[in-house]
Write a structure and sequence with these properties.
Blueprint (H helix, E strand, L loop, with lengths): L3 E10 L3 E11 L4 E5 L6 H9 L6 E6 L2 E2 L10 E4 L11 H11 L4 H14 L15 H13 L5 E5 L7 H18 L2 E6 L2 H7 L2 E6 L2 E6 L1 H6 L4 H6 L6 E8 L2 E4 L2 E4 L6 E7 L5 E2 L9 E10 L4 E7 L12 H6 L6 E7 L10 E5 L1
Parallel strand pairs: 3-8, 3-9, 6-7, 7-8
Antiparallel strand pairs: 1-2, 1-4, 4-5, 9-10, 11-12, 11-14, 12-13, 15-19, 16-17, 16-19, 17-18
Helix pairs in contact: 2-3, 2-4
Bound molecules: adenosine-5'-diphosphate (ADP).
Adenosine-5'-diphosphate binds next to β2 and α1.
């Protein structure tokens, strides 16, 4: 097993496109690290550089104690599972699992032993005689993982491995992956654009935007203390409400609400409020209250999402990496807000809600 260190890693494609920009990141031995960010932010490129499938333009990648910049993929002791994992359709599960080892001329008994171990671990032992066409999507996914695991790699690289599965299976595979990692403890880097997957799976998550690392930390820390506006808006579903406000003398005015914050610096500010941070209150509520005009109500069974708008000189904020640009954007006289309520709190579209933070 091994740690993986990105040191000032940059990837420039012809164009030029800076896909990864001066990435510094250390993945600890046996850690499960998630690289997350919107499509095109450079996640796959970062992963493919670890695998040796893309050349590194600048900086170094170290696996264990070895700088691997010039090490060919087959000598890197990594295993990779892609979104479009291809199993050999004419081979049984058993032969699919053992393929990589046989190709490396591993002795037959050793192949059998490793395949047995891995298939037991992944619950595939009943399926060894079947061909991929006789398996469900989830089972096929497990075979693809198993095929990577039999090689006992030092580092496991996963690129959106669950995105081809239906929603229910994805949730199942998520917990299965987590259990599997806890058991085998191989250093794992997992790429996803799905921030829910990121939060539920990772020991730590690394958030990328436009090739630049925005924040690294345990999921709850990133959720509770986003480093910048991009992370605030990207992590969390539905996203955090970001409202433009103005601060003077330790008070923030946002819409027709005033909030106290003795530490706030003067001038324009962004106020971020999670959808679950807004609660409906009665007429007699004493503190600051938003008057929300309800547009769309989405009942989800266990909760209700309410999309509406609030009065006042507030602005919607578009999510970008540069905080300054955010403040200049999207002047409007009403700001959209999303609330996460209990089913019994469900309002009617067109109605008004008094909401406290
Ligand atoms: P992600 O995995 O986050 O969706 P990628 O790492 O695939 O992002 O891509 C990062 C950026 O690099 C994107 O702007 C993409 O268009 C660009 N890119 C990826 N591969 C190539 C390539 N082979 N040639 C040129 N540009 C590329």
């Amino acid at each position: 097993m091994a740690r993986v260190v990105f040191d000032g890693v940059t990837k420039v494609y012809p164009g030029p496109v800076i896909a990864v920009d001066d990435l510094a990141l250390e993945v600890a031995d046996a850690e499960f690290l998630i690289l997350v960010g919107p499509s095109g932010c450079g996640k796959s490129t970062a992963l493919r550089m670890v695998a040796g499938l893309e050349r590194i333009s600048e900086g170094t990648i170290t696996i264990g104690d070895r700088v691997v910049n010039d090490v060919p993929p087959k000598d890197r002791d990594i295993a990779m599972v892609f979104q479009n994992y291809a199993l050999y359709p004419h081979m049984t599960v058993e032969r699919n699992l053992g393929f990589g080892l046989r190709r490396r001329r591993t002795p037959r008994d050793d192949v059998r032993q490793r395949v047995d171990e891995v298939s037991r671990m992944l619950g595939l032992d009943e399926l060894l005689r079947r061909r991929p066409g006789q398996l469900s999507g989830g089972q096929r996914q497990r075979v693809a993982m198993g095929r990577a695991l039999v090689r006992e790699p030092e580092v496991f690289l996963l690129d959106e491995p669950l995105s081809n599965l239906d929603a229910k299976l994805r949730v199942e595979m998520r917990s299965e992956l987590k259990r599997l990692h806890d058991r085998i403890g191989v250093t794992t880097i997992y790429v996803t654009h799905d921030q829910v997957e990121a939060i539920t799976l990772g020991d730590r998550i690394a958030v990328l935007s436009e090739g630049v690392l925005q924040q690294v930390g345990p999921p709850q820390d990133v959720y509770d203390h986003p480093a910048n506006v991009f992370v605030a808006g990207f992590i969390g579903s539905p996203p955090m409400n970001l409202l433009k406000g103005r601060a003077t003398g330790g008070r923030i005015t946002v819409g027709d609400v005033e909030l106290a914050d003795p530490q706030v610096s003067e001038g324009e500010v962004l106020v971020g409020i999670r959808p679950e941070g807004l609660r409906p209150v009665g007429e007699d509520h004493a503190g600051p209250v938003f008057d929300v005009c309800v547009d769309v109500v989405e009942p989800l069974g266990d909760e209700v999402l309410v999309h509406g708008s609030i009065e006042g000189p507030v602005a919607d904020v578009r999510i970008r990496a540069e905080d300054e640009a955010l403040l200049a954007d999207g002047e409007r006289d009403r700001a959209r807000v999303t609330l996460r309520l209990l089913p019994e709190e469900r309002p009617k579209p067109g109605s008004r809600l008094r909401v406290a933070i």
